[in-house]
Structures are given as C-alpha cells and as structure tokens.
Amino acid sequence: MEIIKKYLNKNYFYVSVIIMGLTSGLIGIFYSLFKNKVFERTTNDFLEGTGVLGAYITESTGKPSETNYFIIGLLISIAFFFIVSFVFSRILNKKYTYTFNLNSFLSIILIFGLVFSSLLINISFVLGLIIFYLSLCLYFISIYLILDKMFKLDFKKKIFALSILLILVIIILVLLKLFV
After folding, report:
1. Dist. CA 11–CA 121, nearest whole Å
2. H helices of 48-154, where?
3. Cα gap 147→162, rounded to integer Å
4. CA–CA separation, 23 vs 30, rounded Å?
5. Which of 51, 54, 70, 178 is the most buried (most CB within 10 A)?
6. Do 109 and 23 meet the contact criterion of CB atoms below 8 Å apart?
7. Would you state the torsion angle of the CA atoms of residues 70, 75, 76, 79, taken in this order, to the nearest 10 degrees?
C-alpha cells in the first residue's frame, strides 16, 4: 500500500501513460495471437482430410490481417482503461489523473499476465487463456483490495464499482465475439 501511495503522491502521469500504452499494446498482441490461433484451429478442423480442395479454400478465403486484430485490441483496451479511470474518479471523488495513475499502477499485473499468456498461447491455447483470465481476476482482486484498504469504501460502493467493471468486460467480450 505504501508503494502505491508514494506513486500516487508523486503524480507520475507520464509514466502512467507509458504503462497504459504498454498494457494496451500487449493486449493488442495477445488478441492478435488469440484470433490467429482460433482461425488456425477452425480452418484445420474444417479442412482436415480435404487435400487439394482444402489448400485451395485456404488460399482463396484468406486469413484476416493480424494488424487488424492488433489495432482492434489496442483501441478497445485503451477505451477500457479510460472508462475504468473515469469510473474510479466518480466513485472515489478524485481527479481523473489521480485515478488514471492508480489504474496504471494496478495494470502492471495485467502486463505480467499478458506477457506469459502471449508466450504460452502458441504452446498451449488453453494454458494461454487460463493465464490471461487469472491475471484479469488478479487485476479485479487488486482493485477490490485497493478500494477496501486504501480508500476504505463501504461494501456497496466496492461492489458497485466492481460490477460496473465486470459488466464493461462482458460487453467488450460480447462485442468482440459478435463483430470481430
């Protein structure tokens, strides 16, 4: 807690922007790797045993660009972090830069999870997803602990904040599933 308080008191906004940019970039990379792995698995399952026809279908349909997936993941994660910081600023009655710094400090958990899950997704698709979801759960747990220990919010406000964030994550996942 003391490290977080020192970080917030020094107001390292430029460092927070770098951390958020790194986190968003890693989310874009992970999403690109994830979508390529899903497309590869679906194509292999669909075309298994079709020989020349399978090779023709693979060449003619074309795989979506990794760059598109990267940009989509990057933009969605940037929007997510800005919305989370906005929700924090409303609930905690603090300035936006303060809550942005807090959110960036907490997203360091996601950085480690994204690096490991991006490395492992090519080895084991399921293991990469498990690591990603575990890091996301640790991110939410750390938010809860910060709201509890550092700001001493009552239970209703903590649950309200976490439910808004969870609904936001569910909306993002549903939109990614429907439109991408």
Report:
1. 36
2. 52-61, 66-92, 96-106, 108-120, 125-145
3. 10
4. 10
5. 70
6. no
7. 160
- Judged by DSSP in three states, 32 sits in helix
Q: Which amino acid is at 64?
A: P
Q: pLDDT means per 10 residues in the chain (180 residues)?
A: 82 90 93 80 50 46 71 89 90 90 92 93 88 91 87 86 86 71
pTM of the model: 0.81
Cα-atom radius of gyration of the chain, to the nearest Å?
19
* Nearest residue to 174 (alpha-carbon basis) of 96, 87, 76, 34: 76
Extract the tokens encoding 20: 């958020």
User: Which pair of structure tokens corresponds to residue 159?
Assistant: 């649950």
